[in-house]
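Entry 14. Structure prediction run on the chain below.
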Amino acid sequence: MKAKELIDRYNKGFRDFSDINLSREDLNGAGLVAINLANANLSETNLSCTTLNEANLYSVNLKTSVLYRASLCDANLCEADLNGASLIKADLHGARLERASLRDADLTGANLNAVSLVNADLTGANLSCVSLVGANLEGANLSEAFLKGANLDGAKLNGANLEDTNLSGASFSEANLSHANLKSANLCHANLYAANLSDALLSKADLSGANLSNANLNDADLNDADLNGAFLVDAHLGRVHLGGANLSKTNCYKTDFGGAFLLGANFNGANLNCTNFANASLQSADCDDIPDAKYALD
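Output returned:
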């Protein structure tokens, strides 16, 4: 089907265009609210500035399509193929993208507030400066994705894969990252205030200058992580593994390290006022202010 025929039929009240082939067609600026394009082929199609709010795009093929500034609010994109698609500054507020594939997609500056990306594949995707406030990314794969400066405040990322992901300067205030894989992730200067990182894998992660105040890091793996200059005020690190971690110049005021494993950790220049080290393993920890014993600092 050609783009003109689809628009003509849509304007006459027809809405069901499931399974059609619109590959490489030009639908720039078209208004297609609540259209049904389930299982349609829209690969390499120009959908710039197109309005697809509340559209049914279930399992649609949008591979390498252009959706610059497109509006897809509350659209159903579950199991859609968006690999390599351009969604720069697109508005997907409230859209459903469960199990969708967005490998290497470009979502720079997109609005993804309150979207559902449960079990979606965003490997290598560009999500710089994206707004994902309140989004659900449970079990999503964001390995090697680029989220520099992204806003994920209040987002659900429990069980998500963020290994080797660039999250520098991103905000995760009060986000749920429990059981997430953040191995070797770049979280330099990230805001993780009051975030839930319990049981998270953060080994070799770069958390230098990050804000982890009031964060829950109980049972997390931070072996060989870099927390140089990080803020850990009132943070909970019970039973955390910090073997070989760099905590130099960190602010650990009232931080709870109860039962933590700190073998070979570097606390040089850290603020340890009112820090709790009850039952922590402190042998070989590098800091003159930590007593060679297993008890709390008053």
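Helices lie at 3-11.
Filed with the rest of this week's runs.
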